[in-house]
From TrEMBL:
<keyword id="KW-0833">Ubl conjugation pathway</keyword>
<dbReference type="GO" id="GO:0008270">
    <property type="term" value="F:zinc ion binding"/>
</dbReference>
<keyword id="KW-0479">Metal-binding</keyword>
<protein>
    <recommendedName>
        <fullName>RING-type E3 ubiquitin transferase</fullName>
        <ecNumber>2.3.2.27</ecNumber>
    </recommendedName>
</protein>
<dbReference type="GO" id="GO:0016567">
    <property type="term" value="P:protein ubiquitination"/>
</dbReference>
<keyword id="KW-0862">Zinc</keyword>
<dbReference type="Pfam" id="PF26192">
    <property type="entry name" value="RNF157-like_N"/>
</dbReference>
<feature type="region of interest" description="Disordered">
    <location>
        <begin position="1"/>
        <end position="20"/>
    </location>
</feature>
<keyword id="KW-0808">Transferase</keyword>
<keyword id="KW-0863">Zinc-finger</keyword>
<dbReference type="GO" id="GO:0061630">
    <property type="term" value="F:ubiquitin protein ligase activity"/>
</dbReference>
<feature type="domain" description="MGRN1/RNF157-like N-terminal">
    <location>
        <begin position="21"/>
        <end position="141"/>
    </location>
</feature>
<dbReference type="InterPro" id="IPR045194">
    <property type="entry name" value="MGRN1/RNF157-like"/>
</dbReference>
<dbReference type="InterPro" id="IPR013083">
    <property type="entry name" value="Znf_RING/FYVE/PHD"/>
</dbReference>
<feature type="compositionally biased region" description="Low complexity">
    <location>
        <begin position="9"/>
        <end position="20"/>
    </location>
</feature>
<dbReference type="InterPro" id="IPR058981">
    <property type="entry name" value="MGRN1/RNF157-like_N"/>
</dbReference>
Length: 193
């Protein structure tokens, strides 16, 4: 466990700008208005990494920009500690202007809070919580009706690429709609025959 795994996350970055900054934080906690900071600032300075917009892309953290996870116990990596998450992936859809000013109530970001677990002698990222910030409003994404915490072990002969991608209502169509905080709406796009 002496080396840092590269953070990889599938994204659907559909921002109006040509690139979407992605910032990786290690052992971070949430501050005011969707900001995050590391509880170990000397460990690594978070760097915004430009990421081109588009659907179904994979983000690979540049080599040398991570943290040597060998300094931490598996217990520290695999559990949240109060408000501190071992891994935070912060993708902005509307970055600040060139002077660094963020227009009031215009933050648009998807934040993935995760832990790092060891399975079959490999470190893997497990998403614990997802947050959307839009125009100053925070939305916590949650499963509504469905298949919560399903894993490969729960579904024999399951294809890893297809796990959790289907609608939790009809179980055949792909998910394509965010869930509202009222928890009353879940929509699936079905094409006409």
């Amino acid at each position: 466990m002496g080396s840092s795994p590269m953070s990889r996350t599938p994204t659907d970055a559909s921002s109006p700008s040509p690139s979407t900054p992605v910032t990786i934080y290690y052992f971070a906690k949430e501050g005011k208005d969707s900001s995050f900071s590391s509880v170990y600032p000397e460990l690594q300075k978070p760097t915004k990494i430009p990421f081109q917009k588009g659907l179904a892309q994979k983000f690979v953290q540049p080599s040398g920009s991570g943290v040597d996870l060998g300094f931490f116990s598996l217990d520290e990596l695999s559990k949240t500690s109060g408000e501190v998450f071992p891994l935070v992936i912060y993708a902005e859809a509307c970055p600040p202007d060139e002077q660094g000013h963020q227009p009031v109530n215009s933050i648009r970001a998807q934040i993935t809070l995760a832990v790092i677990e060891k399975h079959n002698n490999e470190l893997q990222v497990k998403v614990v919580k997802q947050i959307l910030w839009s125009d100053g409003v925070k939305y916590e994404l949650q499963e509504i009706f469905g298949i919560v915490n399903s894993t490969e072990a729960d579904v024999p002969d399951a294809d890893d690429a297809d796990m959790g991608k289907e609608c939790v209502i009809c179980l055949t169509e792909p998910r394509d709609t965010a869930v509202f905080p009222c928890r009353h709406l879940y929509a699936v796009h079905v094409e006409d025959p």
